[in-house]
Amino acid sequence: MEGGAKHPRLAAAPNGDVLITWVEDTGWNRGGNLVWALVNEKGVVRASEKINKGIPVWSFSSVVRSEDGAYFIFY
Asked: What digits encode the pLDDT tens for the residues 44-68?
């Protein structure tokens, strides 16, 4: 994590995977970047992405996991 990581959110799966989202480069009256990482039970990152300018001003991310195993990130 870099760029002033803030507002982490987690969604866990029964197999031990955890999807983590956070925001970077946000500030007063300034949106920023959405970042997510899918981590397995051993802490190994399986997938990740940074969405530049994805977070609107005064917002943050939220993540949920559905019963069928899909992850959804709202922002």
From this structure: 999 999 999 889 999 999 999 999 9
